[in-house]
Amino acid sequence: LLFLWSITVSIFGIGGLLGSSGSRYLTVKFGKKKCLLCNNVLMIVAASIMGCSKISQSFEMILIGRFMCGLSAGLCVPLHHQYVGEISPRKLRGFANSTSSFFWSLGKAIGQISGQRELLGSQSLWPMLMASCGVPALVQLVTLPFFPESPPYLLMHKGDQEGCKKAIRQLWGEGQHQAEIDDIMKEKATMKNTKILSVLELVKDPAFRWQLYMIVILTATIQLCGINAV
């Protein structure tokens, strides 16, 4: 029983690893907006499966739902940061990206509070707690269609300059946005001469060795700081 529940908890991370690994391919092929929309559907399905697990008397549904939830979260982390950063005007881009970390922390805090036995963590209400992750996904699924695709994606990957200009006007209003378009064109020219490293190539490259050491140590110490025990 302990082994089964340990797998149920940890399979979220396995799904997250797979989701984040495939995010680059999916964003280049389908675009960030479409990926986010499909990702919301995946999260809603995962929430529904976990929410119905008690009625169905199936712990396997919790296992499957946790894996799908992790897959969705792994896709969402890079997608959300990229999309928010790319649709924000230059002067607000740093602020917009910093709000992501704030809302991640706020979501964790709300989840911890909601999981108390006095609220949704009781014996009768825990399926609602597990299904609650579908609520923000549903909100984004309803509102995201009113937003355009990322302007850099339209210009750099689709070559759609008119679509890029239309998206910029919809996001930032009417005005002169040629400077932003020129910046995207410069980035596109730079990317042509830049080799995208695989994970294995990144690990082998001596130029990034110390940065990797720092990231690994930082990530490991976060896991050892006691937050999981709390």
UniProtKB/TrEMBL annotation:
Where is each Major facilitator superfamily (MFS) profile domain found? 1-230
Q: Does the keyword Transmembrane helix apply?
A: yes
Q: Where in the cell is it found?
A: Membrane
Residue ranges annotated as transmembrane are 6-25, 37-56
Keyword annotations of the record:
Membrane, Transmembrane, Transmembrane helix
Mode of membrane association: Multi-pass membrane protein
Q: Name one GO biological process term.
A: dehydroascorbic acid transport
Q: What is its main location?
A: membrane
- What cellular-component terms does GO give this entry? plasma membrane
Molecular functions (GO terms): D-glucose transmembrane transporter activity
Q: Name one Pfam family in it.
A: Sugar_tr
Name recorded for this polypeptide:
GTR5 protein
Record organism: Rhadina sibilatrix
